């Protein structure tokens, strides 16, 4: 059993390495996780659309900062090329894949994924957490595991060239670490769509129930035929999408992230004397790229998670 656990934690080590600092670290993490479980239960009692939006607003800081941190390094493509890493049994994995798997395994042991806000990218790596389970006080059990993790992973690599310079400085481990921080922040934000959907459902249960039921009832309809069913299925998803969309809120989010990218990403100088005297300020990540990332990906994926969550809300 011990060996299995050690292998799950690190497929490359034949012997578990449990050092005293590691033991203390886990003890500390377990303690903080127990405290955060208490906080989770307290959060459940103050759960509403306003508190959910506050969470999304705070996550913007993490996302913008993490993109700025990743932009410190050039594209560093070998970090994503499986032929660069010597992964043994995992040779089809890139350095980033391996780094993400290993990091998630350690974090899983410390209880990160006991928190219903967190979803791993590699859920199949079996690791026994060192802390007790927490049952979400908020999410509906049948839809609690809805997530867009695969789409988030793909989206991130499509967007990478827009906020990193072309090039290779050999700092692949730092690059992979910065990537994982970005991916985890994006995942937390987008998969939080489950909580947003739950808050919206609780605010207007009748409206959402009729849109959700419309889809379920159709399959039993005597008029059911595959093409029309398929069409109506799409329409009902559309109805849910319309119900949960707030164009004004989306504009607010995009304006705010643009401002954050400008404020967090500018060079801070003493006495306003800048080395670069050109009048155009230079940002570490282009604020328009962050706006597009939100407008084209982050918000649409959050909405997909919301729709998917709601479709199972009455199961
Ligand atoms: O704040 C909300 O109401 C959300 O559903 C979140 C969010 C977003 O992703 O920021 C998504 C859909 C809405 O149209 C507005 C904003």
UniProtKB/TrEMBL annotation:
Q: Which GO terms describe its cellular component?
A: cytoplasm
- Please give one Gene Ontology molecular function term for this protein: chorismate mutase activity
**EC no.?**
5.4.99.5
InterPro entries on file: Chorismate_II_sf (IPR036263), Chorismate_mutase_AroQ_euk (IPR008238), CM_AroQ_sf_eucaryotic (IPR037039), CM_II_prokaryot (IPR002701)
Biological-process GO terms, alphabetical: aromatic amino acid family biosynthetic process; chorismate metabolic process
Q: Name one Pfam family in it.
A: CM_2
What are the UniProt keywords, alphabetically? Amino-acid biosynthesis, Aromatic amino acid biosynthesis, Isomerase
Keyword Isomerase assigned to the entry: answer is: yes
Stretches assigned to the Chorismate mutase domain: 176-306
Q: Which Gene3D superfamilies match?
A: Chorismate mutase, AroQ class superfamily, eukaryotic
- Tell me the route in metabolism or biology where this protein functions: Metabolic intermediate biosynthesis; prephenate biosynthesis; prephenate from chorismate: step 1/1
Which reaction(s) does the protein catalyse, per the Swiss-Prot or TrEMBL entry? Answer: chorismate = prephenate
Name of the featured protein: chorismate mutase
Q: Which organism is it from?
A: Zingiber officinale
